[in-house]
Design a protein that fits this description.
The complex is a heterodimer of chains A (114) and B (110). Chain A has 114 residues and is mostly beta strands. Chain A has strands at 3-7, 10-13, 19-26, 32-38, 44-52, 55-58, 64-70, 73-78, 87-94, 103-105, 109-113. Chain A contains no helices and eleven strands. In chain A, strands 2, 4, 5, 6, 9, 10 and 11 form a seven-stranded mixed sheet that branches. Chain A is globular, with a radius of gyration of 13 Å. Helix content of chain B is 0%, strand content 58%. Chain B has strands at 4-7, 10-14, 19-25, 32-38, 44-51, 56-59, 62-67, 72-77, 86-93, 98-100, 104-109. In chain B, β6 (56-59) and β7 (62-67) form a beta hairpin. Chain A binds chain B through residues 6, 32, 34, 36, 42-44, 46, 49, 51, 88, 90, 92, 94, 99-108, 110, and chain B through 4, 31-32, 34, 36, 41-46, 49, 51-52, 89, 91, 93-103.
């Protein structure tokens, strides 16, 4: 069976510090991978998605970046965090090669920038 | 651009009631419609997936319907229980990318 792992669960970082959040999927190959952010009282905002290694699409211009160094690994990064980067970050995956597959989510990372 | 709206934003009901949560989307050219549950501080748990060619899906006390032409989906919860308390989100599946509504926050009190 497939599983998705996301870490850390919580993170408190000072303004201006770097960020690295990691997500890995097990039990499948060539998944589509997604990073969403959920701010308090708001819906899920798609930040990045990837349909293959090295292929990253950005949905929202910001100081965040994403990378996919391996087939089942998706990393969200920032060189310098802003207060506005605080939020709940969720990684998700769908089986590739089809547009109509089910999406599965990790348990999320609560990021607080202080 | 796809926009998804969920009504009501919040709902508080006594245990045992049957509930209907609504989801509407602006672009009917979707591949699927997926319903999720989110507990406080947790990730999303998939409840039901309806393909664009289907009209409804059922899982236990949950039933979800889809009317693509009118841009609507409903999640029906039968005989609600306190354990159903959570936020329910729907996502309209575009080409590889799900677009989410803001969710309905449900409280079922004993």
């Amino acid at each position: 069976s497939q599983t998705i792992h996301q870490w850390p669960a919580t993170l408190v970082q000072p303004v201006g510090s770097p960020l690295s959040l990691e997500c890995t999927v097990e039990g499948t190959s060539n998944p589509n991978l997604y990073w969403y952010r959920q701010a308090a009282g708001r819906g899920l905002q798609l930040l990045f998605y990837s349909v293959g290694i090295g292929q990253i699409s950005s949905e929202v211009p910001q100081n965040l970046s994403a990378s996919r160094p391996q087939d089942r690994q998706f990393i969200l990064s920032s060189k310098k965090l802003l207060l506005s980067d605080s939020g709940f970050y969720l990684c998700a995956w769908k089986m590739g090669q089809s547009r109509s597959t089910e999406a599965f989510f990790g348990q999320g990372t609560r990021l607080t920038v202080v | 651009k796809q926009e998804v709206t969920q009504i009501p934003a919040a709902l508080s009901v006594p245990e045992g009631e049957n509930l209907v949560l609504n989801c509407s989307f602006t672009d009917s050219a979707i591949y699927n419609l997926q319903w999720f549950r989110q507990d406080p501080g947790k990730g999303l748990t998939s409840l039901l997936l309806i393909q664009s060619s289907q009209r409804e899906q059922t899982s236990g006390r949950l039933n979800a319907s889809l009317d693509k032409s009118s841009g609507r989906s409903t999640l029906y919860i039968a005989a609600s229980q306190p354990g159903d308390s959570a936020t329910y989100l729907c996502a309209a599946g575009g080409s590889y990318i799900p677009t989410f509504g803001r969710g309905t926050s449900l409280i079922v009190h004993p």
